[in-house]
Amino acid sequence: MVALIAGPQKDPRCAQGMGLPYLAAVLEEAGFEVRIFDRYPPSPDTDDPAVLDERLADAIAREQPAIVGMTVHTPDYVARVRLARLLRERLPHTLLIAGGHHPLSEPEHFIRNTDFDVCVVGEGEETLLEVARQVARGRGGDAKDWLWDIRGLAYDREGRMVFNHPRSPVAELGSLPFPAHHLLGLESYVPHPNTGVVSQGILTYRGCPMGCAFCCNPQGPHVRRRSPSKVVDEMAHVVHGFGVRGFNVYDNLFALHREHALAVCDEIRRRGLEVVWDAWTAGGLVDDEVARRMRAAGCIHVGFGAESGDDKVLARTQRGFTVARHQTGLDALKAAGLRVHAFFLIGLPGESAETVRQTVEFAKRCGADEVCLGIHRPFPGTGVWRDPAAYGVRLVKGPGFEAYMETEHLSRAAILELAEQAGEELKQSGFTAGFLRCDRYAWE
Ligand code: B12
Ligand code: SF4
User: Fold this and answer.
1) In this predicted model, what pLDDT tens digit does every residue of 105-133 receive, in sequence order?
2) What's the gap in Å between 51 CA and the centre of ligand 1?
3) What is 189-437's CATH number, 3.30.70.2740, 3.90.550.10, 3.20.20.70, 3.40.47.10?
4) Residue located nearest, by CA, to atom 1 of ligand 2
5) Which pTM value belongs to this model?
């Protein structure tokens, strides 16, 4: 049995990334037994993450899996490393394999400092399948003796870091089975706040050609689109198979390719599927026509990555859009009757007191229904992490990949104070201003 773990939560839940469901589907198609552990065993008596992890590790260990695979994102690094330690204690001979954006960005540090045997660098469908096949052939013992043959892996062999040949991302997304929704325990999902109904993630393409300085661009620069009919086949499969009609479209930027987005919307309508969905976009990718057809196809909510109200900050951040382009997209979405949630970051390269003011003014006038302010937190794998000087910023790193950034104009304290004031001002202007607070770290 292969046990897959992604960001375990307590019930009730409403969102799950599509990485593990894709991996599970590929393994199941090849005949492997798979379980996804994306929630903690029922534990009404405690919220202590250490105790919850103990209970999850016990539950997984009882299944005696041959492989345990885990997704690790940077914000969860410390928690996932703790869980891996508990699993290693209980399952000394099970292959522990990690994937996701954190090991992708820091494979060597990850392997040298955790209990994982190996990590997958990049997309995992083909790589994990090859690993599972080797384990099933009885190639246990020291896995390092046979891992060398499998592309896309990184591991330590006798103190030497080994990076196997890289594996190309899945070129033909149509070759993948639908994600394994049946392994997600959908009966315990509650309605998603953006759609108002129980919802499942879906992707119409993978990849992103933009190079935003604050993003690790996990799917690589080459865009691979799914056929619109296959996307809608998947929606129909979820609607008819599980009675779920809500979708979170996890495309990095919906309508990045206008014709593709229109074709997906039109296919939903042509089939008469009564779905509701949300999506993410930015800039002027969405015009009146696209927005109207999104709305007609059941889209009711859009997350909009506006990031800043200052063109110089957007340019320094290599965001690829201007404030005016963002406004065009926002106007189109609002005119089509969509609910828009605009996201802004404070503390990006080039930020000053003046640019924060521009951001607050833009947030107030842009027409979004909701506004979310975040304080920029640098992650490994991003441009600002790799080369802060090139962006005119200073990075201060703490343990566990926590880090903050200062610009040439603003200290850490000044960024926190300006963000605080900005949040207050937006609230007083009547916005339901969510505030993502990545602003206090254990080591400070
Ligand atoms: C859906 C989503 C969410 C959902 C669900 C997250 C979840 N835990 O599953 C919600 C809304 C809850 C969420 C929240 C957050 N998210 Co989020 N989210 C995404 C998003 C848009 C899509 C994920 C997805 O489905 N991808 C599609 C699948 C097919 O790709 P994948 O997940 O990368 O998986 C593939 C490979 O990575 C690999 N792989 C992954 N896991 C494993 C495991 C094994 C064993 C193997 C072998 C391979 C493997 O194989 C998979 C198949 O090819 C991504 C952006 C993106 N485009 O990926 C951001 C992203 C993952 N989120 C991110 C962040 C920062 C957050 C937040 C911290 C935001 C915030 N400030 O609050 C929170 C906290 C997340 C958390 N605690 O895990 C960052 C992570 C950056 C990093 N360095 O870790 C990303 C990459 C966005 C970005 N571009 O920066 N998020
Ligand atoms: S933030 Fe979005 S648009 Fe920018 S590189 Fe990342 S995925 Fe692409």
Assistant:
1) 999 999 999 999 999 999 999 999 999 99
2) 24
3) 3.20.20.70
4) 215
5) 0.97
